């Protein structure tokens, strides 16, 4: 049986005789500084390798079964399902010279090897947790009188080995449990949980078998979940924080979403697009870039957006290297705007601008296939998204942004109209009924029957 911790590796060599396992020898070794940085799989594999190497003279030519509480180590001997380093491959090859039979065992059944892998100086015995301290603290505990009246507990004063003063213990359970005052509860928890950092249920069973206090289950669960060592070592057990929604801005220019599209086919020295969308009005813009360094992105945003519309209160981006750079951090602090980074590998969190990318890419591809021109020669496709009303406000972005601006319909580009020709849309207030065909919110959109011709004069 083998096991590994952050500090050492340990193993116990056992032999099955007379219907049971009998220990033969024990092994323990502290990890070197560079070995402490191994992954959990690397440390468990090192424990098995070190144990086989230590006991090789005793197990050579014998049937050897390795028991471990680390399932990925079991799968590594059955199939090559992960990328292994050269050192891990050498360790596996050495172990297979003696055995390839590796089985999984529950952590609660691997106590001996687990104890051999712990740092002796860090072990704290709950039995030696100073019964004298508890007796002194019980004498001055203000909650003790109210706890005595609790019908669910039966507190009595009894003598405990190692303590001259009697302690208040709960006799309602099969085994007496010591009542712990408020100032010592954290210390009792750390003494029990710090042995091997078990989960919530295991820690509850361990502490409830010896101690009691009001709200003990709630306290143990909260302290176990907030244990820093557990959070660092048990990555797979992390709970995901719930997703939150951005608050709706109250005015224009307040909240802007930024992102980068590319790399695109090289056109006039450009490969990327920097896109921006105002969250209030849904007004989109896009600017072509030759390279996407933090300096270029910041300068483009400053010259093309901030110089025209002012400094936004909040800017939301993904966790691209340009937006996580020191320059962008200083840029945000200088402008006095809040930089919000979305979750890693979760583009849905920046869905407003990601949806614009979908429209841009589809429009660019279709236009290039139809006309054969390069994408930098395509008209500002981001403006084509302005003609549709927002589902949130049922008002077009130009009306939100410029109030009375008339935006040429995208049909005018494909129908061959000259730039001097515009299509007029009349917006008339209506009732606040739900939108239906031909309506959007409280406005009815009616294309004029005639296309107004504007003379070049």
UniProtKB/TrEMBL annotation:
Domain Integrase catalytic: 245-427
Gene Ontology BP terms: DNA integration
TM region positions: none
Entry EC number(s): 2.7.7.49
Feature: compositional bias, Polar residues: 422-433
Hydrolase in keyword set: yes
Annotated region (Disordered), positions in chain: 422-457
Enzyme class name: transferase
GO cellular component, one term: DNA polymerase complex
Keyword Nuclease set for record: yes
Entries under CDD domains matching the protein: RNase_HI_RT_Ty3
GO MF annotation, one: nucleic acid binding
Protein name: RNA-directed DNA polymerase
């Amino acid at each position: 049986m083998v096991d590994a911790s952050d500090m050492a590796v340990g193993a116990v060599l056992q032999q099955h005789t007379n219907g049971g396992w009998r220990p033969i020898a024990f092994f323990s070794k502290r990890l070197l500084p560079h070995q402490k940085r191994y992954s959990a799989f690397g440390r468990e594999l090192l424990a098995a390798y070190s144990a086989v190497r230590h006991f090789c003279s005793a197990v050579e030519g014998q049937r050897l079964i390795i028991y471990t509480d680390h399932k990925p180590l079991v799968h590594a001997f059955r199939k090559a399902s992960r990328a292994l380093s050269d050192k891990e491959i050498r360790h596996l090859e050495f172990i297979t010279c003696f055995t390839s039979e590796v089985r999984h065992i529950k952590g609660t059944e691997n106590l001996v090897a687990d104890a051999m892998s712990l740092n002796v100086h860090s072990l704290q015995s709950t039995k030696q947790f100073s019964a004298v301290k508890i007796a002194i603290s019980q004498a001055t505990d203000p909650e003790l009188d109210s706890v005595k009246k609790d019908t669910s507990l039966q507190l009595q004063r009894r003598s405990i080995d190692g303590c001259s003063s009697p302690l208040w213990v709960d006799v309602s359970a099969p085994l007496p449990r010591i009542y712990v005052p408020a100032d010592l509860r954290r210390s009792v928890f750390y003494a029990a949980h710090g042995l091997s950092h078990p989960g919530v249920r295991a820690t509850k069973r361990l502490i409830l078998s010896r101690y009691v206090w009001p709200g003990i289950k709630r306290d143990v669960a909260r302290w176990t979940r907030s244990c820093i060592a557990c959070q660092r070592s048990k990555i797979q057990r992390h709970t995901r924080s719930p997703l939150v929604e951005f608050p709706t801005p109250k005015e224009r220019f307040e909240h802007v979403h930024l992102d980068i599209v590319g790399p695109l086919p090289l056109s006039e020295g450009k490969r990327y697009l920097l896109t921006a969308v105002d969250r209030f009005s849904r007004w989109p813009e896009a600017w072509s870039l030759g390279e996407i360094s933090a300096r270029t992105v910041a300068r483009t945003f400053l010259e093309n957006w901030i110089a025209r519309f002012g400094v936004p209160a909040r800017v939301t981006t993904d966790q691209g290297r340009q937006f996580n750079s020191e320059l962008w951090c200083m840029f945000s602090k200088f402008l006095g705007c809040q930089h919000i980074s979305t979750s890693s590998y979760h583009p849905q969190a920046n869905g407003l601008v990601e949806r614009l990318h979908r429209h841009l890419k589809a429009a660019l591809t279709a236009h290039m296939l139809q006309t054969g021109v390069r994408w930098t020669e395509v008209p500002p496709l981001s403006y084509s998204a302005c003609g549709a009303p927002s589902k949130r406000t049922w008002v077009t972005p130009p009306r939100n942004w410029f109030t009375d601006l008339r935006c040429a319909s995208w049909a005018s580009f494909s129908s061959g109209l000259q730039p001097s020709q515009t299509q007029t849309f009349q917006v008339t207030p209506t009732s606040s009924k739900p939108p239906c065909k031909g309506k959007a919110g409280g406005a009815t959109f009616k294309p004029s029957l005639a296309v107004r011709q504007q003379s070049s004069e």
